[in-house]
Amino acid sequence: MNGKRKAALAGSVVLVPAAVLLGVLILFVAAVANGAVGHDEEGDAAAPAAAGGAPAAVAGINSVMLSAYTRAAANVSTVRPKCRGMRWSVIAGIGKIESNHAAGRTVTANGNITPHILGVRLNGSGAGGNTSSFSDTDHGLLDGDTAYDRAVGPMQFLPSTWNGPSGQDGNADGVKDPQNAYDAALGTAVYLCGTGTADLSRTDQLRNAIYRYNHSATYVADVTNHITEYDALPTDTGAGGAATGRAGAVINAARSEIGTPYVWGGGSTTGPTKGGYDCSGLMLYAFHQGAGITLPRTSQQMRHTGTHVNRAHIQPGDLIVINNDGNWGHVGLYTGNNTMIHAPRPGKNVETTSLAGYWEKYDWDVRRVL
Asked: What number is the average pLDDT over the span 235-259?
């Protein structure tokens, strides 16, 4: 909205009958609600792909841990806007050394890790190679030790570090938990970025950041070796060919949210709200983050954005508005190979799913916004 138009609106008083306002409100709520119902039959989708230029799967890395790494790399700029060059492999390199990616633990879809990961008691005994003593700083709340600190979680944060600016809520559940994969991964990205200007695509700055994480030249060498290994892996595009440019950026933004819970009415241009996304909220986030485009809020409204494309000519990055409920109540993002990313319904998480079977039997309105 330009300044003149904003001033004109500010200087006007428009009286609208209460019945009209109520009707508009009811229509909006109904439009959002339609995304939460009407497709209970689609069944369980295939395992979700990873995000942000990462492989679909990496040997030795739990799928949720991989999702946590890629989401953290994609989202760290919202916490550290002066940081550039963060990628999933950097966070994974730390995770490999610190806990072998939470190996041997159970990692739930929302990132919670059980049993908890605790380092040795830092009492200066030399256990674990550490001869420095760290007295308790958290009254045992994070590490269960009221005398000395222990490193906690898959990324092995000291309680004092986690309780500072490094502690993050990576899965948007309102809790900063170092034993949660998404929280710990974002905390690691934030710590590596620091508070100043940083470009981790530069080898010297990356090595300095890793050294800040652990003051050991051997540690830096080990982590960077793993980063190099992960960087060499082929990335997954989710399409027959790589989705590039703005389409690729939008897809990567959506993929970074894989594993986030479905929440009716959830999602904005900046990320999950109320702990998650509904189908249109996820699209709102992906297009704004990836291409700077602010879509309308509901799937019904999204039918009138961009241009209509025949289903046979669909391309990665296109919106698919689906009439599975008689009211065009669902929307997803096409990623290629007959798959889409979407927020399905209550009780499920953001996922990549096949369009074959359940979804293909309904009418689609494919919208090309990019």
From this structure: 75
